[in-house]
């Protein structure tokens, strides 16, 4: 029973970490897209 609890807790921790990582990648991609857009419009690169 204790092993199952440990496995569930570990899986929950890894899932939470993965969600945060994916969210961070999305924010980075959005920032890069905005920078390219500004450069294409002739604003500061």
Automatic annotation (TrEMBL):
<keyword id="KW-0449">Lipoprotein</keyword>
<comment type="similarity">
    <text>Belongs to the EcnA/EcnB lipoprotein family.</text>
</comment>
<keyword id="KW-0472">Membrane</keyword>
<keyword id="KW-0732">Signal</keyword>
<feature type="signal peptide">
    <location>
        <begin position="1"/>
        <end position="23"/>
    </location>
</feature>
<dbReference type="InterPro" id="IPR012556">
    <property type="entry name" value="Entericidin"/>
</dbReference>
<keyword id="KW-1003">Cell membrane</keyword>
<keyword id="KW-0564">Palmitate</keyword>
<protein>
    <submittedName>
        <fullName>Entericidin A/B family lipoprotein</fullName>
    </submittedName>
</protein>
<dbReference type="Pfam" id="PF08085">
    <property type="entry name" value="Entericidin"/>
</dbReference>
């Amino acid at each position: 029973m204790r092993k199952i609890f440990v496995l569930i807790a570990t899986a929950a921790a890894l899932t939470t970490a993965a969600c945060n990582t994916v969210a961070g990648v999305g924010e980075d991609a959005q920032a890069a897209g905005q920078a390219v857009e500004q450069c294409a419009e002739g604003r500061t690169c």
